[in-house]
Amino acid sequence: MALPPRLDPRINGSPLSIKALWGPRKEDLRACALRFAALLDGLTALNPIFKRWTAESRWTMATTRRYPPPQTPGSLAGLIERGERFQYGDQSIEPQYGYCISAESGKENHRTIRVSADVGNYVSTRPDCNYVSLFFVGRSPGNRDLIRPSFLRQALLVCVATWRPDWASVELVHYARRWNTSLHSFPDKQPWAGWMTYLSAPLAERIVPPALVASERTPDGGLLMLATRQQFDVTLPPHVAATDAIQAGLRPIQR
Predict the structure, then answer these.
(1) What's CA 250's distance to the chain center, in Å?
(2) Are 82 and 65 in contact (CB under 8 A)?
(3) At 186, is the pLDDT very low, low, confident or very high (cuts 50, 70, 90)?
(4) Rounded CA gap, 47 and 106, in Å?
(5) How many other C-beta atoms can be found within 10 angstroms of the C-beta atom of residue 79?
(6) Is there a contact between 104 and 94 (Cβ–Cβ < 8 Å)?
């Protein structure tokens, strides 16, 4: 598809996110709880600033319960067990639609990371009905260490190791709109390219990594492609060209 000839340099100040997505997969409460706790433990191991988490469980058509700090990652396993979704109307539990939970850390230091999970859905036909996202504030002197390439790569791999998604990416939040052909907030077809793009082994087998980008195999047999190992900058043509090449390479598996 035709791509816009230029990108607004202000996108460089956009918040960063890591998204990990997968299709229907049946997992009970305990399995989801352990995965979520392992994710937070993994992030804390990368940077001790994330040693305390404020968490909340969310219900469809029900009241949000907020659990104030301090929260340690290990203590969150029980929280998701109260995050059942409810059917519209009589609010009976509908576990087949999964569970919602989110956690936030670093706010007191103005270096916030927010983790959201919508997981355990096994009845939807959507390829993205389950997801985990990590949201970082935009670039600033105070959070420089959290948005450096090495940290984001490690955080992406923690998501992959704990949730086994079909695909995942690191991206500037507003940059993903580059792949839109409609007015939707997110690209129309998945997976889409990011600064860093991960594919599970079954998807990786179906594409050829572009020669223009750095690529590496992950411990689970998946593929990680990096538009650049440096800080991504939309004003640098090589960075944009590399991301375009990843996007073109994903066409055989997009849906």
Answers:
(1) 18
(2) yes
(3) low
(4) 10
(5) 20
(6) no
What is the average pLDDT across 55-59? Answer: 59
DSSP symbol at 93: B
Residue 34 CA to residue 125 CA, distance in Å, equals 25
Cα 251 from Cα 219, distance rounded (Å):
24
pLDDT for 1: 42
Token pair recorded at residue 208: 């050829």
pLDDT, greater one: 14 or 101: 101
Please answer whether residues 207 and 222 qualify as being in contact, where contact means their C-beta atoms are separated by less than 8 angstroms: no
Enter the pTM of the model.
0.84
The tokens of 206 are what? 């179906």
Does 113 have pLDDT greater than 80? yes
CB 33 within 8 A of CB 155: no
CB 96 within 8 A of CB 53: no
The beta strand positions in 46-93, using DSSP E, are: 54-58, 65-67
Give the Cα separation of 122 and 126 in Å (integer): 10
Q: Which tokens go with 4?
A: 């816009």
148-160 per-position pLDDT tens digit? 899 999 999 999 9
- Average pLDDT, stretch 27-43? 85
What are the C-alpha distances in Å from 43 to residues 9, 95, 141, 169, 199? Answer: 30, 27, 21, 16, 21
Q: Is 222 helix (H, G, I), strand (E, B) or coil?
A: coil
Residue 97 tokens read as 């639609």
